[in-house]
Design brief:
There is one protein chain. The protein contains ten helices and ten strands. Strands 2-1-3-4-5 form a five-stranded parallel β-sheet, sandwiched between helices. The two termini are 46 Å apart. It is elongated, with a radius of gyration of 23 Å. It is α/β, with parallel strands linked by helices. The chain folds into two domains: 5-134, 3-Layer(aba) Sandwich (Rossmann fold); 146-290, Reverse transcriptase/Diguanylate cyclase domain (Alpha-Beta Plaits).
């Protein structure tokens, strides 16, 4: 049986919020209510509801600003938003639609209309999330696809340059992966990559993200991290992989870690980090190589 669709309801008047939650609850919908739009936005980013029912007139953040900030999230564009308002004039409707709202309801809301629209929009939101996962999650390892990872990396690079915050990138792959495939077969190799993806997601921070760049090579982005902190984080991942068998076999990884330089673009950042990965492999594997270790190393094909 499918879990109910989660509906985020935001209204600064607690009585109105309670009424909306009561009207929505049931029929496959599970409401979560907030009177504070800032708290609601933070929750929405963490939990990813299937639908947002949003009061337009709220102190501190109106509906237009809320929708604009929601759409800036990684998956915020996938969440349908219904604006609930007592004065939906043509100009305001146009602004809200341009900001990214999907529909409107006028106060006082009709319970039957509210329930019908909420169910329909929540189904759309759930389907959109499913398509998003298919498009952005690597099917085997459950980390980001290459395209999605690189897109998110570019976003973080732009944010780092704009606000002057540090950003570190790690590239890593499985040591002797060809030997694993040759000795035990590709199904075992797939099992190793699948288990490695799970180990990575368990080890990295919530603010970090990882992606499969191809074959056995992965990327890992660490916002607001540089120097020794990035090196220590990479060491934790290396130790977590080496310390416990993966898919019932001993597996190690080599990692290159670099911190973004002023004005550096994603291409140069990736090339520099890739050199550090191959420096780690050339130096004996199952180790971390960081900035300065191999600035002039030439990339060589190492299994």
């Amino acid at each position: 049986m499918n879990a109910p669709s989660r509906v985020l309801i935001v209204d600064d008047v607690s009585v109105n919020l309670a009424l909306m939650c009561a009207l929505v609850e049931g029929n496959g919908l599970d409401p979560v209510g907030f009177t504070d739009p800032f708290e609601a936005l933070a929750w929405c980013q963490r939990e990813r509801p299937d639908l947002v029912l949003l009061d337009y007139a709220m102190p501190g953040m109106d509906g237009e600003t809320f929708v604009q900030r929601l759409r800036a999230f990684d998956q915020g564009a996938m969440i349908p938003v219904i604006i609930v308002t007592g004065s939906a004039g043509p100009e305001m409707m146009v602004r809200m639609l341009e900001a990214g709202a999907n529909d409107f309801l006028r106060k006082p809301v009709d319970p039957i209309e509210l329930s019908a629209r909420a169910r329909s929009m929540a189904q759309l939101g759930r389907a959109s999330h499913a398509w998003f996962e298919l498009a952005t999650r690597d099917e085997l390892t459950a980390v980001d696809t290459r395209r999605h990872f690189l897109s998110r990396l570019n976003t973080e690079i732009a944010r780092s340059h704009r606000y002057g915050t540090p950003l570190s990138l790690a590239l890593f792959d499985v040591d002797h992966f060809k030997r694993i495939n040759d000795q035990w077969g590709h199904p075992v190799g797939d099992a190793v990559l699948r288990a490695l993806g799970a180990r990575v997601k368990e080890t990295i921070r919530e603010t970090d993200f990882a992606g499969r760049l191809g074959g056995e090579e992965f990327g890992w982005t660490m916002p607001a991290t540089c120097g020794d902190a990035a090196h220590m984080a990479a060491e934790r991942l290396r130790a977590a992989v080496a310390g416990t068998p993966i898919a019932e076999r001993p597996v190690t990884i080599s990692i290159g870690v670099a911190t973004l330089r002023p004005a550096e673009d994603s291409s140069d950042f990736l090339v520099r980090t890739d050199r550090l990965l191959y420096h780690a492999k050339d130096s004996g594997r199952n180790r971390v190589s960081t900035d300065g270790a191999a600035d002039h190393a030439e990339r060589r094909p190492v299994a």
